Amino acid sequence: MAITRKEKESILASLTELLKKARGVVFTEYRGMTVKQMNLVRRNLRKENVQYQVVKVTLLKKAMEALGIKTDGMKYTGPVAIAVSEEEETTPARVLKGMTKENPQLILDGGIFNSELVDATVVSRLATLPTKQQLLGQLVSVIAGPARGLVTVLFGNTRNLLNVLNAIKDKRSN
Fold first, then answer.
1. What CATH number should be reported for the domain holding residue 16?
2. What is the reported pLDDT for 150?
3. What pLDDT does residue 1 have?
4. pLDDT at residue 151, rounded to an integer
């Protein structure tokens, strides 16, 4: 069933708004996947607060052009599915990359990063980055490292002094 011009304009407006808010966008090809597999992909992405939807390439290009993103490198001929995260840049790439092992038909084709069109190699590299929570944990560990070292050094001198005093006490009591 054909979509009317008014419906296309509505879809274009919502897609443009979605891409404007997006921090991470990944394009995927999904040909050959069953409905059950697509639902599993959507469910896993939804757990991470990532929207996943199939869009027409022409509408996607128009939405990207409206946001000032160059579409010269887009090579799609049919519909494409996009995964969009408003919270974290790497989440869509990380989740989809993990799902490609179970669903080889799911192909990561590229995405949008820092308002630029990127290819599949950049998306694959983004997928290997740690999550925001993991990075914050690493930062806290690095910041706490010198303080932990100082406490260890200070405690070591005190411990050595106590060992010497205990040895002197034991020698005098004998």
1. 3.30.70.1730
2. 82
3. 60
4. 81
